[in-house]
Amino acid sequence: MANPSLLILPGDGIGPEVMAQVTRIIDWFGEKRDLAFDVEHDLVGGAAYDKHGTPLHDDTMARALEVDAVLLGAVGGPKYDDLDFSVKPERGLLRLRKEMDLFSNLRPAQCFDALADFSSLKKDIVAGLDIMIVRELTSGVYFGEPRGIFEEGNEHVGINTQRYTESEIERVARSAFELARRRGSKVCSMEKANVMESGILWREVTQRVRDAEYPDIELSHMYADNGAMQLVRAPKQFDVIVTDNLFGDILSDCAAMLTGSLGMLPSASLGAPNADGRPKALYEPVHGSAPDIAGQGKANPIACILSFAMALRYSFDQGDEAARLEKAVEQALADGARTPDLMGPEGGTPITTEEMGDAILKA
Ligand code: ATP
Ligand code: MG
């Protein structure tokens, strides 16, 4: 059987630096765990613009639609700030998201014990935290029509429209329930059904999908404002949270700060199933290209490494190997490995991006 295929797009800034550590880990899996991937490297963002005059070449787009998973570093940087909007590095990423139809954005908030002091909350609230927020990514108020700034009488009015179809809600709900089957079998859906029609439909449809297709999953519903409060008060009550584009945007950033550094946060975006039934998938760290620290060996590669762990679990059915990699990250942190972003007030000597890769490989 052919090896699973992986398209690696390191991108700009610290993207290539953190991706270099992932590449070492991928090689390790091939050598030590007999888990080989067909890996292709290509350009995206400013790097692609420099070579091709476009932030995403058509050939790269075509490959992204064919491979089992895409792993992306980061795009953008000050060098490209003055480019025309149509060729900005970010447009490369947006095109990938759009053409792969990545409607389900998975953002875990996981707190490694070694970093529990690092959270903005008390240690006992976050220690051992492991939750997943599923955000609908391609519809809702960011895309609904009509939208615009219009004249109305003698003033202007700014209009956006929250709009969800049943099928849009169904597909993101399914993706959350599928996820819950691999985790704690518990989903909490968040909307504002008390004041929004789209919320009423959201609640009805998620419940209907659960009753018809996922009776093994426990589904609860919560108003999103209460959800924000509960996320900060007692986040461990949740396992999978599913919510719309706008609420998900806010709630996932809120959850991110439960765990500490931006350098620790992975993400996955899933789309419609391919011919083999697996969803199209793009994995990337939550952070950007961090031009302020690029080229200095200061970047924390863990967000990108954990993004690869998500790929192992969700695109390649290698949950045990994903857990192995996550444990190695946990062990390296417990052994005291710290890039500069993870230095607490107690100080100490930070290590480089590559040394963090060493520590994780050793673990
Ligand atoms: P984007 O617009 O691409 O999301 P951003 O403006 O949100 O980018 P980032 O590039 O994510 O910003 O960087 C925000 C801050 O976090 C910077 O100070 C950066 O140095 C720091 N940072 C981001 N990623 C990492 C990382 N992997 N390791 C260490 N520090 C990081
Ligand atoms: Mg950002």
Low-confidence stretches: none
What is the strand arrangement across the widest sheet?
A: 2-1-3-12-11-4-5-10-8-9
Small-molecule binders:
adenosine-5'-triphosphate, magnesium ion
Rounded to the nearest angstrom, the distance between the terminal CA atoms is 30 Å
- Using the alpha-carbon principal axes, give the shape: globular
Q: Tell me the number of helical segments per DSSP (H or I, 4 or more residues long).
A: 12
Q: Which class of secondary structure composition applies to the elements?
A: alpha/beta
DSSP helix fraction: 40-55%
Mean pLDDT: 94
Radius of gyration: 21 Å
Count of distinct strands: 12
**The biggest beta sheet, please?**
10 strands, mixed
Residue share in β-strands = 15-25%
Secondary-structure element order, N to C: EHEHHEHEHEEEHEHEHEHEEHHH
Describe the model.
The structure is a single chain. The chain has 363 residues and is α/β, with parallel strands linked by helices. Helices cover 40% and strands 21% of the residues. The strands form 2 sheets. Strands 2-1-3-12-11-4-5-10-8-9 form a 10-stranded mixed β-sheet, sandwiched between helices. Strands 6-7 form a two-stranded antiparallel sheet. Helix 1 (15-32) crosses helix 10, helix 6 (166-181) packs across helix 7 and helix 10 (302-314) packs antiparallel against helix 11 (319-334). Bound molecules: adenosine-5'-triphosphate (ATP) and magnesium ion (MG). Adenosine-5'-triphosphate is lined by residues 14, 18, 76, 262-263, 287-290, 292-293, 299-300, 303, 341.
